[in-house]
Design a protein that fits this description.
The complex is a heterodimer. Helix content of chain A is 28%, strand content 22%. By secondary structure, chain A is an alpha/beta fold. The longest helix of chain A has 15 residues. The chains are: A alpha/beta, B alpha/beta.
Chain lengths: 153, 231
């Protein structure tokens, strides 16, 4: 028997995992807070957005209708308007759509104040198309328009 | 001699560290909101002012996206300076609008006479618009602690576009106008309140008054003329 016997082996202490949920929750909260939902994108039209210097933040908690104006993929110079989910064939559909929307009390309450028409328009669109949409908006008494743009640095 | 077991590491404070980090990120993270340019379409009920030639800064874009300012071909970057000159020039400069003087006394007097006029003609839309404008000007006088000069109500920047003008040109023109306007607002803000205009936060009541006051001096006035073919 050696004089320097190691004797009983020491047990490693167990690492506490009690803090693991905290770390997980921290990460969860972090991502919850920093996530910005991607802007609605059109799947039917190609849109190359304009970049300008002077922009403002779009207000939060708004009611909005979305208009996309852009090229139909694969075709040359075929600019079309998409309203919410569908391409429109006739501009008068816009007015009908908005009037229908206004019948919903959720929308009618904020119609003059927090109802926005959000435009996402391709650079090369001719103003005549934008104007036709504006005319329909005026008919439906929806006067607030915002143009979605990229901010130029 | 019995050897002691190493004591277990206390993990109780781990949660505190986690929350500390969580709170740090919560405070320092800024959200990136979608960027937009806002515009209000003209309403049928809008009153049309009689426009005086010198009170209008005319900007045109033709079907080839060429820019014209006051009837002369110009570069798009010239718009900014034209806008600055339109809003801020020596009173009496030919072809530029003359200012109206705004002081606290003038505001109060005008409001009083408008009040009387509205008693006689309760539905006159022009009087109501004037009353609204003068009320805001009075607030601005109080915020500045003194009077100022501003453009008359019927002074406006006018944009004329051809039907074939492209959208990017329209947006660039608007951007140039806003750049000119905001640089004027910024220098006024630094002069009067010692902070830059962008730093003012419209969710704070005192800043909101300042923003409104600055806007009274340099109001955003853009008129769109439609369906005109421009050469």
């Amino acid at each position: 028997m050696s004089k320097f016997s190691k004797g009983k082996k020491r047990k490693d202490p167990a690492i506490s995992t009690a803090a693991l949920p905290d770390i997980v929750f921290m990460l969860l909260f972090f991502f919850m807070v920093t996530t910005v939902f991607k802007e609605k994108e059109s799947k039917k039209l190609e849109i190359d957005k304009v970049a300008i210097k002077e922009t403002i933040d779009l207000e939060k908690n708004i009611k909005a209708s979305y208009f996309w104006i852009g090229k139909v993929p694969g075709k040359v110079d075929d600019f079309r308007v998409q309203l919410d989910d569908d391409l429109i064939n006739d501009y008068s559909e816009i007015k009908d759509y908005l009037i229908e929307l206004r019948k919903n009390p959720e929308y009618s309450q904020v119609w003059g104040s927090r109802f926005f028409n959000v435009f996402k328009v391709d650079k090369k669109t001719e103003m005549r198309i934008v104007r036709k949409v504006h005319d329909e908006l005026k008919e439906a008494e929806a006067f607030k328009v915002v143009y979605s743009v990229n901010r130029e640095k | 001699m019995a050897r002691r077991d190493t004591p277990e590491i206390n993990a109780g404070s781990m949660a505190d560290i986690a929350f500390l980090l969580l709170i740090f990120f919560l405070i320092t993270t800024t959200m990136n909101l979608p960027q937009v340019h806002e515009e209000r379409l003209p309403q049928k009920s809008d009153v049309e002012f009689l426009l005086n030639e010198r009170n209008v800064l005319q900007i045109m874009a033709n079907k080839n996206d060429k820019i014209g300012i006051e009837g002369e071909f110009a570069d798009i970057s010239d718009i900014q300076n034209a806008v600055k000159k339109f809003y801020q020039h020596k009173d009496g400069t030919p072809n530029q609008p003359s200012y109206i003087e705004v002081t606290r006394k003038i505001c109060e007097d005008t409001l009083e006479s408008l009040e009387n006029a509205l008693n006689v003609y309760p539905d006159a839309p022009l009087f109501k618009i004037e009353q609204d404008a003068w009320k805001k000007r009075l607030d601005a006088c109080i915020a500045f602690g003194g009077g100022f000069q501003t453009l008359p109500n019927n002074a406006t920047v006018s944009i004329q576009l051809d039907n074939s003008t492209t959208y990017v040109t329209y947006m660039s023109v608007l951007d140039q106008i806003m750049q000119g306007l905001n640089s004027l607002r910024d220098s006024l803000c630094k002069d009067k309140f010692g902070v830059s205009f962008e730093k003012l936060n419209d969710k704070v009541e005192i800043d909101k008054q300042k923003i409104s006051a600055i806007r009274q001096v340099y109001p955003k006035k853009i008129m769109k003329e439609k369906n005109r073919s421009v050469q």
